Amino acid sequence: MLRDMAALKQTVVLAGATGYIGQHVAAALVAEGYHVIALVRAHPGHVGADVLEHCEVRVTEVTDAATLQHALADIHAHAIVSCLASRNGAPDDAQRVDYGANRNLLDLAPALGVSRFVLLSALCVQKPRLAFQHAKLAFERELMASGVGYTIIRPTAFFKSISGQVARIRDGKAFLVFGTGTETACKPISERDLARYLVDSIDDAGRRNAVLPIGGPGAAVTPLDQGNLLFELAGKPATFRRVPVTLFRVAIALLAPLSRVIPALAAKAEFARIGHYYATESMLVWDADAKRYDADATPSTGADTLRAHYTHALSSTDGDDALGAHKLF
Ligand SMILES: NC(=O)c1ccc[n+]([C@@H]2O[C@H](COP(=O)([O-])OP(=O)(O)OC[C@H]3O[C@@H](n4cnc5c(N)ncnc54)[C@H](OP(=O)(O)O)[C@@H]3O)[C@@H](O)[C@H]2O)c1
Q: Which atom of ligand 1 is nearest to the CA of 83?
């Protein structure tokens, strides 16, 4: 049910409200008193979703400019917040969503009267090798050149993305690491802290026209650190199984040439590249001069710790189904 509109603050258009981070952003915007217009596509799972209860839901296709314009024709908004992202990272879907849908929103920004476009991006675009990273970067560039006030937020890994093995540890299995488990690191951030950061950015003058890398509180953690923490909290001896990164290289070497003959394999080759990227690259700020990732240069925000998150996750199976593709990592 909609709350009393007269008592609410300005209007914020939220795209990607049904996603992992988007849901938390919707809740944070509502908690701040914003009138939230949540753009959702027609999807049976979205009907009656609790998170959208206090939002004004507009069912539309953000990937279609004319449909989107029609859906927002009567709106005047203070800001747009986009948490849109391709669900699978395949090249054509990334182009349609990470670039195209965001472009459609940006084109409407002047007519809506928005003073800030807050974009949830990803830290990995600083070293772009994957199709979805190029799609995100292409939109970032156009947003920066648009004249619309912007804040581009590039987080490191979400708690979700490094929780894929909680169920394995609960079940007494080994923790899987690529290579030695020490080649990469991240400063994980909770969905709640990230959502707060996004919402706070709407009216933060210091974050206007800025591109902001952001991680959670505490030191950077490697996959080996994550495994050791999980075993400690579960009260079990640490056992690791090492998976060679070469697996991805072999898959790429086989699938890339084959996809030129069988186009349907192109998406699978891209998924292997995505797996290889996350198995070999850190989610920390990249120092291009020193050619290394720099944990100290990666800003921290928020209060939720990985230790508290893992403690909760080990004692409950609630989050297991929400992991989707993140189960691998
Ligand atoms: N995972 C990480 O550790 C991590 C780290 C840093 C940055 N990021 C970035 O954070 C962003 C958000 O991640 P997330 O996990 O919250 O994403 P998510 O759960 O996959 O949510 C994606 C959102 O985009 C919407 N969407 C996707 N395709 C659409 C389409 N064709 N038409 C309309 N809406 C569409 C989804 O709507 P439906 O519900 O209808 O599908 C959903 O609301 C991504 O850009 C990601 O790269 C992730």
A: 12
